[in-house]
Please model this.
Amino acid sequence: MTETSPAPVRDDPEGTPAAVPAIELAGVRKSFQAYGETVHAVRDIDLTVHEGEFFSLLGPSGCGKTTTMRMIAGFEDPTEGAVYLHGEDVTGVPANKRDVNMVFQSYALFPHMSVFDNVAFGLRRRGVDKAETRKRVGAMLEIVDLTGREKRRPSELSGGQQQRVALARALVNRPRALLLDEPLGALDLKLRQAMQVELKRIQREVGITFVYVTHDQGEALTMSDRIAVMNDGGIEQLDTPRAIYERPASRFVAGFIGTSNLITGQITAVGGDGAEIGYGEGRIVVPLNGASRAVGDTVELTVRPEKIVIGGERPDRGSYTSATVAEVVYLGTSTSYLVTTAAGDDVTVFVQNATNADDIAERGSRVWLSWEPRHSYAIGTA
Amino acid sequence: MRRLKGAVAPYLLILPGGLWLVVFFAVPLVYMASVSLMTGNLIDGFEQTWHWRNYTDGLDVYGDKFVRSLWYGLIATVACIALAYPAAYWIAFRAGRHKSTWLFMLLLPFFVSFVLRTIAWKLVLTDQGPVLGPLKSWHLLPKDFHVLDSGFAVVSGLTYNFLPFMVLPIYVALERVDHRVVEAAYDLYAGRFAAFRRVVLPLSLPGVFAGVIMTFVPVTSDYVNASVLGGPDNTMIGNVIQTEYFTNSEYATASALSFTLMALLLLGIFAYARALGTKDVLEAAGR
Model:
């Protein structure tokens, strides 16, 4: 990463040129001074969020996703670059003058106010009259299923209820975009799953653009229209959940999203739109998706655990390799096999427990793994 | 056995403090209450006669001193809030990593004796002192202008001496305000003033409440400031009690006056707590 920033490039590869994007970041960088050193929390990000989209910023803690969101909200100013909301440059405009609202990680409800007053806060600051305020707060509380709890204090509510108050408090203002900073992080698993469905429903109902920050890849995959996977202050990949899962753009993305098997090998033959890799006692065929690779090149490819089939016979087509079962983990709906291939890679295989009640292989047994070439993906071949 | 220990433990923990309070607080209090109803003098001795007139006489003779004490206490407490709130706010939100330095500086005068501090304050306010002297020589003030021996001098001394008792609880309350909650206010279209008025101020009111109790009570019953800075015309009830007890040896009168003062303070605090100490006030302030 160089110290000088390139001129902001405003390209819009996904959206239709006519529609104004809800949110646009152009060449946004955020640097901090820490112990005499310059730390880049966010490095030269360009991204576009479309109107009505459920957009996720996904990444491990410290990847810059929260800083990115805070720059959209107006709590941080970018060191370089510009933030556009509906085509309007809002760089440097304070949070209270931006038409976006935020749901905070810890909800940040006003502890001294009732549920009603919490939700009415934004409307009152904007001078909405009393009757209208009461009507809109009432309607919003109905959407989040909190009717009848208007007079409660946040401390008298459960975590899930507080979460819904936070959501209502932001949505009642009908913002142009709603920013959610790990809003389900404090909830237990069951409630979190219920709230995921709930959030999706509410988003459809109100039709507002959601920008969702999370480190939980499952959550991002379930809810998002598109995901930006972030790492070390930059965007690794920006695509639909399916594309990110099936065709990870980098080793990092492949490792971060779901369980992924990374296999490294050298190309022994290229033909059609695929490459063949000699692999131990077997062979691997991987599509190249139009990318050019030559014999002798090293490729990293991913195969998802649920795509691999375990068998006793040596297959005669597709990709296959022999392997030894290192561990068998029974997971209820599926069984997870940790195997070591003849070439020495550790691979995970999920087998659905649909028909076979018994394990299909025991620990220490030699098996053959096979998968269809189209289910593997060579990293870097978009 | 363990359960028994668990049940006994809390009582064992309050035992030392409890004993201390019984011996050095409750017993003297009951004794003083009994003395306040006695008649007699130092030479013939005091006798329990249930002489309730000690109370009514005290109010008759020194009513104006009571009123003046409560009045001074009120002004000094309000002045303390006015000075302490911005200071506490600044230390809590703006002082960054120098917070503890500023708090220490605030407490530094406490390392000097209370009486000495008050005498120093007298030197500061004296007619040709470092404040009035230059102002007079520059003809900004008339030659005969003076501050000492006035109600103003007493109130300013009281404010100065008890200021930290107001700053600290307000600081603690402000320090506990979650900055994300303040950010939420900004996010919901509140400007700086609205965020302060609707969120920070209401959330810090419990600190102000505690500060008022911690300053109003000792300020109202103080006698050092009035005797050092106030001169003969601005005496407070504390001075009267001190004179009655140590100079005139009128123990019964002094005790009765003390209990009257205590009753007035408790009444004032209860009224104040009723009016401001409830959650409804915080809620109304946030609306």
